[in-house]
Amino acid sequence: MADSVPELGQVAGGGFQVFSVDAECIKQRVDEVLQWVDSLEHKLKEVEEFYSSVGVSNSGSIGKDTEKGRHVVGIRKIQQEAARREAVAAKRMQDLMRQFGTIFRQITQHKCAWPFMHPVNVEGLGLHDYFEVIDKPMDFSTIKNQMEAKDGTGYKHVLQIYADMRLVFENAMNYNEETSDVYSMAKKLLEKFEEKWAHFLPKVQEEEKIREEEDKQAATEALLAKEASHIKTTRELGNEICHANDELEKLMRKVVERCRKITIEEKRNIGLALLKLSPDDLQKVLGIVAQADPSFQPRAEEVSIEMDILDEPTLWRLKFFVKDALDNAMKKKKEEETKTGALNGTQKKEVSNKRNANNKLAERKTKRSRV
């Protein structure tokens, strides 16, 4: 069991030793169990966050897939399958870009393509305002270099090439006058390019559809694998929580064995203190009694707690719980009184300031009337 705490009395290596259960030993053991419980709470929070992010509807669909016997693969296999799909998709895209190369050559070999073959010579042509009009210069030689790049810096998708091809013509048409030859050549080439792209586009759309389906499949498999992991974690958490409860119960009984018995007077005081508890705290008291006595009915219309028949561990739990509950209630009451007192003090100060202001105003009016 992951993150388990050794049994009471167990030493490294699995053996056991006999030792006196003194206060320091019990305190140390309680600290260990509390740290253990903290780790369990952290795991539980992770599981809760997962199901909160997935949502009820998705979680239900996952459960149905599991019930149907759908194969749930592990995280490592999911990662391997995702890498394989990505490599296959990259190869298909490389094939598409190679096919697009035919269109690229047809456009660049056209008689109107020569003004766009290389970057615009801004300084040589004296185009001082070029970069004020054009944000991203583009030309065919730059596109060709990107298409042929082998160092991983080239195009990853054919739509990137398409966008840069259009940018070449759009830049020319944005900077040059409509009556210019460059504008006319750019417009003519753009029309031819769009015509050829229209015939090529179905292949691109088919690839996009395949990728979308693959992404959905990958996301579903990853979700299934993650839920399978959380189901296992939840099962382990249930076992560990039971184990932690057993450890705390064991420690509590060890403590009680070393304690004196609850006196008749203390039992009476516990009973009287119950009358001062809030409804929520009373429900917790009934829960404590129910844990000790399975036949006790905490939800009955009339509930009677017989102090004389309760065992010592339960009496001590009630004693400590009642004391803490009343102390917390008193502390909360004092905080509210302090807050109310501070508020009243502020209000009194505001009234005093307002009264002083009114007095000063009255004095000014009196002086003016005398004048």
UniProtKB/TrEMBL annotation:
The keyword Coiled coil applies. Keywords: Bromodomain, Coiled coil. Transmembrane segments: none annotated. Residues 203-265 form a coiled coil. The keyword Coiled coil applies. It holds the Pfam family Bromodomain. Residues 333-371 are annotated as: Disordered. InterPro entries: Bromodomain (IPR001487), GTE1 (IPR017413), NET_dom (IPR027353). Residues 252-333 form the NET domain. Residues 108-183 form the Bromo domain. This is Bromodomain.
